[in-house]
Amino acid sequence: MPLFTDQLNRKLEIKCPPQRIISLVPSQTELLYDLGLRDEVVGITKFCIHPDEWFRTKTRVGGTKKYDLEKINNLKPDLIIGNKEENEKDQIELLMKDQNVWMSDIYTLKDALWMIVALGAIVGKNEEATNLKLEIESRFHRFQNDIKASQILRQAQNGSTHLLTASSLRTAYFIWRKPFMAAGHDTFINEMMKLCGFENVFTEKESRYPEVTAEEIIAARPEVILLSSEPYPFKEKHIEEFRSMLPNAKILVVDGEIFSWYGSRLLKAPQYFTDLIASVSEKP
């Protein structure tokens, strides 16, 4: 059988292409669908909500942290796809004892593109994966050129106009409340923020997803607060809670899937980010 290397640098012999796949990662489940797989995927998690067709019809083997091992074994997979951050280590190590588990480990856009091509090779969709990678690269390249050219304008308070890039804005990105948790350093979310030009105010914290108090939020002085739609489902009603701390900040609820999913959904990210920066730049 062919030998493949995952993103933890583990070498696996995998039947190629695999005919019975379980995906434990929502963004990679969507990727498998967009690469053209159908019956080959036999199991997903309860958080694999895209595509809806699979969410309604595929066997769900649990969440991303805790699985029904009996269900997994009964599905007789020849490949399980996991992720170092999204899946719980002890559970994954249990699976690795009896199953072929290919792991992704993604911090940057480059990591995500490598994963797309690598999985494409494993599942027999080389051409589709390569084309997807090239299209994502092309869209991000155009987006970055727009950012560098500072083509988004903001009306200054004094009535004059000046060029704006998001790099001029101190930003906090929240993934949870009670307690407040933000995206920090070495996260894919932080990578997306950097590509937009946002300056993440919590990258100096020790934790990758630090818990922060209201006092720390105020002290960080973010000009922009982004409230993610996942994993905590922030809504418009939560904006006032943050406005009470920072009345002059721009506060927006954002699509958490765009910021944190690292599969084929990346195709949608550049346009979403362009629209987001335009929203941030609007005069109140």
Write the layout of secondary structure elements.
Layout: E1 3-5, E2 11-13, E3 21-23, H1 26-34, E4 41-44, H2 52-57, E5 59-60, H3 69-75, E6 79-83, H4 89-98, E7 101-104, H5 109-122, H6 126-148, E8 152-155, E9 161-164, E10 170-176, E11 180-182, H7 188-196, E12 199-200, E13 211-212, H8 214-220, E14 224-228, H9 239-243, E15 250-254, H10 256-260, H11 269-281
Parallel strand pairs: 3-4, 3-6, 4-5, 6-7, 10-12, 10-14, 14-15
Antiparallel strand pairs: 1-2, 8-9, 10-11, 11-13
Helix pairs in contact: 5-6, 6-11
Describe this structure in words.
The structure is a single chain. This protein is an alpha/beta fold. Helices cover 38% and strands 20% of the residues. It folds into 2 domains: 122 residues, Rossmann fold, CATH 3.40.50; 137 residues, Rossmann fold. Strands 10, 11, 12, 13, 14 and 15 form a 6-stranded mixed beta sheet that branches. Helix 5 runs antiparallel to helix 6 and helix 6 runs parallel beside helix 11. The radius of gyration is 20 Å and the shape is globular.
